[in-house]
Amino acid sequence: VFCHLNYQVNKKQLRDHFWSGYEKGRWHRFVPPQMIWWKWTFDPPFDPIIQDIVDDMGLSGLNVKPRYSYQFPNSRLAEHLDFDGLIGINLNIMEDTTPDIHLRGVCFPYEAAVVDVGHVVHTVESVSYERLILKFAIRDPYSKVYDALDSKGLIDKEETRKCNPDFETYVSENTPTEDKYRKNKYLRNQLLQYDRQGNSLNKSEIKFR
């Protein structure tokens, strides 16, 4: 469900890249409307700075959709599953703050992690600071993603055991409680629909710490 990764990125370089092209992204529309989450997604061919990470992590043979995700302070993402059974690799690109994700009510802080966000109900709880991550949304089975990362020595097994001791025997599947989110297409219909109006993000309103 969750594994820490032994992987570091040039955070400043990635933040600069985000700001160089953030206007290509879109708000996501919430129900009720809340403009709190901005995303910039990439279609192939990826920008070189993104492709280099895909290759370095051994993900080039997988169905990968990279994106930057910026979440405003004091905002919360409600319980949901990511659509299409996505597996997420999340990389923190902020210097002085640590993001976290709540999986079945348990908080997992991370710098770099692989998370089964398509099969485990999760939230992103409100904090007082902004969050910016580079996420790789992968439409492949969790086991295939795990094996690709493990073959590169990127699964931090020692750190993962501290918070998720059964990670090596984990089976990716929905529980009956979680299955309702999939049946109702909860994420598609209630949480993350692209705002096709193209609302603009005002960079001057966002301050990195």
TrEMBL record:
<protein>
    <recommendedName>
        <fullName>Aspartyl/asparaginy/proline hydroxylase domain-containing protein</fullName>
    </recommendedName>
</protein>
